[in-house]
Specification:
The structure holds 2 protein chains of 2 kinds.
Chain A: H1 6-16, H2 28-33, H3 37-40, H4 60-72, H5 80-84, H6 89-100
Chain B: H1 4-18, E1 32-37, H2 41-53, E2 58-64, E3 68-70, H3 75-79, E4 89-91, H4 93-97, E5 101-104, E6 107-111, E7 116-119, E8 124-126, E9 129-132, E10 136-138, H5 149-154, H6 163-174, E11 180-185, H7 195-210, E12 215-220, H8 229-239, E13 244-247, E14 252-256, E15 261-264, E16 268-270, E17 273-276, E18 280-282, H9 284-288, E19 293-294, E20 298-299, E21 301-302, E22 307-308, E23 314-316, H10 331-349, E24 359-367, E25 373-383, E26 388-391, E27 397-398, H11 405-422
Parallel strand pairs in B: 1-2, 1-9, 2-5, 9-23, 11-12, 11-17, 12-13
Antiparallel strand pairs in B: 3-4, 6-7, 7-8, 10-18, 14-15, 15-16, 19-20, 21-22, 24-25, 25-26, 25-27
Helix pairs in contact in B: 2-10, 2-11, 7-8
Classes of the chains: A mainly alpha, B alpha/beta.
Chain lengths: 103, 423
């Protein structure tokens, strides 16, 4: 399911709506992205010119790569290396998927 | 005035615009009326996110005493003369665009049984769920001489941003060069753990550049610096030697208002500007609601919903809560609480259980002079077994050293979080 984009996987969940699908919180991606909004703006749309990078609407793979590079330490950072270590691969995948479809 | 039909209409009209991923899941099935009390970092965020995530299907009323939002974070730059009050003030108009009904009033009572909130001027509000985010109230009993309004206008706390912030700035400007500014810090927990040390740093910066014969005296009730100790000590040693003096284990017992004297257990310290940050507790409204308090001070809540452990239908956010381990009482954290509450309330209003996969993050930026900033960051995850939020092992940390880049990020953070909660 991870290969599908977020919207598709959500639609699939909604269609399935069986006990197996109910296991995962369908709003998890949305809620995780809310952890980032304080700095990067609501749904990743940063206030223009305020000095924080917008992270919405970027391709998912690019976002996953950047976040994982922060986590491993290869990408220089003031704070993202510390924040990214708080999230699992699965969570980063969900976050990036949600951010990628923001327009 | 909004009624149910207007809300549904608004929801339908906006469905094509705001939804995107947000339309999935149970949220849009949620209906009902949520009253949020307190439009600070917690309450304003909850109000906006309830409207945004429900696509307008949930009615939200925000009750806020003040006509504009004034930020505590960054207010130490106003105290130091680096920013003005206007720089840290944001209007509530943006929330109205989300369809939040904003009422500027005081709450005089809350009836958790009948689910009603009584306002001083605007009558009664019924609710399906209430969100209380009143911040802290000061425990003036701990500083008896400061109980009256007159005394409080002379010995300032400036620990709620607004007129007190401006008044403290004025006292510092009026102080003669060669004077002493004394700041008293209560025992933790209190609002904004690094805040007092940032304030001491910024006042020292002001003295160093404008009143070089003056001194900053920090009287800390704690046995050591509570937050970012190494980074603050380095900044003080490098920049403020001979200006800033730090005294741990110096708990304030009372003050003498007329002579601006701090009365400690074994000592009395006279200052030219005395700034008392009093001990704090959950806003009075929280106790009034019947919500259970730990130590008679902080609300015990369920971290998956932010709902009081005993007062059903009442969700409590921000500084008023009994903090989870290593969780600071910060604006950032309150914003995260607001989002967890919003998600849980939308589930509950749709007849579903709140999710137990709860994550929150926190970062507190502090200025140590006009250009350099330090941070402390953490990521917290709900632990179902321990029923609390725990930091994720290996995550978080502090700045490598004070630096100018993060001064830009600190202001960027402020502008983005203000927008995240209010526009």
């Amino acid at each position: 399911m991870r290969k599908l984009n977020f919207a598709l996987s959500m639609a699939a969940l909604a269609l399935l709506a069986g006990p197996a699908a109910a296991q995962q919180d369908p709003n998890l991606a949305r809620n995780l992205v809310a952890n980032c909004a304080n700095c990067h703006g609501t749904n990743g749309k940063a206030v223009p010119g305020a000095g924080m990078e917008p992270i919405a609407g970027e391709p998912k793979e690019k976002l996953v790569k950047k976040i994982k590079e922060y986590r491993s330490g290869v990408r220089p950072a003031t704070v993202m290396h510390q924040i990214s270590k708080g999230y699992t691969d699965e969570q980063i995948d969900l976050i990036a998927g949600y951010l990628a479809v923001q327009k | 005035m909004f009624n149910r039909r207007d809300f549904l209409k608004a929801a339908g009209a906006s469905a094509g615009v705001v939804t995107l991923g947000g339309c999935a899941g149970g949220s849009s099935k949620a209906t009902g009326h949520v009253v949020v009390v307190g439009g600070g970092y917690g309450g304003a965020t909850a109000a906006k996110y309830l409207r945004m995530w429900s696509n307008g299907s949930v009615e939200v009323t925000l009750v806020e005493r003040n006509s504009e939002f004034i930020s505590c974070p960054i207010s130490n730059l106003v105290v130091a003369g680096e920013k003005t009050l206007a720089d840290i003030t944001v209007s509530y108009e943006g929330l109205k665009k989300w369809g939040v009904r904003v009422i500027h009033d005081d709450v005089v009572g809350i009836d958790a049984e009948k689910r009603k909130i009584k306002l001083a001027k605007h009558g009664e509000l019924g609710y399906d769920r209430a969100v209380l985010s009143p911040g802290v109230d000061f425990m003036w009993d701990a500083v008896p001489a400061l109980k009256g309004a007159d005394a409080q206008s002379k010995i300032l706390h400036a620990w709620k941003a607004g007129p007190q912030t401006v008044a403290l700035r004025k006292q510092l400007e009026d102080m003669k060069d060669g004077g002493v500014y004394a700041l008293t810090i209560p025992k933790a927990p209190y609002r904004c753990p690094p805040g007092p040390y940032e304030r001491a740093s910024m006042v020292a910066h002001y003295f160093k550049t404008k009143k070089p014969k003056s001194k900053v005296l920090v009287l800390d009730a704690n046995e050591d610096i509570v937050s970012k100790k190494g980074l603050f000590m380095k900044a003080w040693g490098d920049n403020y030697k001979g200006i800033l003096e730090y005294r741990p284990n110096s708990e304030l017992r009372d003050v003498d208002v007329a002579s601006r004297t701090a009365i400690l257990e074994f000592d009395k310290v006279k200052a030219d500007v005395l700034n008392v940050v009093p001990p704090q507790r959950a806003g009075t409204l929280v106790a009034q609601s019947g919500a259970k308090l730990a130590n008679n001070r902080w609300a015990e809540i369920d971290w998956t919903s932010m709902e009081s452990v005993n007062a059903k239908g009442i969700h409590i956010l921000g500084d008023s809560t009994l903090s989870a381990p290593l969780m600071p009482k910060s604006g950032f954290m309150a914003n995260q609480h607001g989002k967890v509450a919003a998600a849980a309330i939308l589930n509950l209003l749709a007849g579903e259980a709140p999710s137990s996969e709860v994550m929150m993050s926190n970062t507190c930026y502090s200025f140590v002079d006009a250009k350099n900033v330090i941070h402390v960051a953490s990521v917290h995850k709900y632990d179902a077994e321990k029923k609390t939020m725990l930091t994720v092992p290996g995550s978080g940390g502090v700045s490598a050293a004070r630096n100018e880049i993060e001064a830009g990020f600190a202001m960027g953070w402020a502008k983005n979080i203000w927008a995240d909660m209010l526009t």
